[in-house]
Design goal:
0% strand; 71% helix; globular; 10 helices; mainly alpha
């Protein structure tokens, strides 16, 4: 039954992502109503995250149906990022009004916190799934590449934790040989964030953790 449910959810999450992506080509005259619809739909997907990685669902990471659901969620994240996180997006967007009403996600930073929590979870539990790790790190890299989203990421405790605790003891995918390219992407993204600001102490933490991993 859970496999069927996960398949249905993956299908619906993909549809929501496609609807939100359509906002890129919609006319300005319909922007307000479209944002309200997008906010309602996005709230349902973001709300799903509160149960996806708890209870019995934590035992299903190796199931194909569960991995397809997480891939659909990552696709939704990418579409939401392109439309509603970035330099051209007003924080007063109706999307954030809806997310604030339903989930308390009132701004970009609140949504980014949720995205980073999911990214960290995926890197911990999907070590043997090279494809899912690739999609997860692609999202992380895209968020870090954007000037505004990169600056916002540096304000998040989840990013500070990742910079100081980035070894395989925390993220199991680093121990899998199939993830060699993913490993490079991961450290490139951390380095981009690290050097976005002049922060010698962060570099020392990153270097210290790496040295400890290499030399024991």
């Amino acid at each position: 039954q859970l496999s069927i449910l996960e398949g249905q959810l993956a299908w619906m999450v993909s549809i929501v992502g496609s609807v939100i992506r359509g906002r890129l080509s919609s006319s300005s005259s319909s922007a307000e109503s479209q944002e309200s619809i997008d906010g309602d739909l996005a709230a349902r997907v973001f709300g799903l995250l509160s149960v996806m990685d708890t209870g019995v669902h934590q035992q299903r990471y190796q199931e194909n149906s569960r991995q397809r659901l997480d891939m659909a969620v990552l696709g939704f994240f990418q579409n939401f990022r392109k439309v509603y996180i970035g330099e051209q997006v007003m924080q007063s967007s109706n999307v954030y009004s809806k997310l604030g009403e339903r989930l308390g996600l009132t701004d970009h930073q609140a949504v980014l916190t949720l995205l980073l929590q999911k990214i960290a979870t995926n890197l911990k539990v999907y070590g043997s799934s090279e494809g899912l790790v690739h999609l997860t790190l692609g999202l992380f890299q895209d968020l870090a590449t954007g000037y505004m989203s990169g600056k916002l990421l540096l304000k998040l405790e989840a990013v500070h934790f990742m910079l100081g605790h980035h070894t395989s003891a925390f993220y199991s995918f680093l121990d899998h040989a199939a993830n060699s390219r993913n490993r490079t992407c991961y450290y490139n993204t951390l380095a981009r964030l690290l050097f976005m600001e002049d922060a010698p102490s962060r570099f020392q933490r990153l270097h210290g953790a790496t040295a400890e991993r290499e030399w024991g």
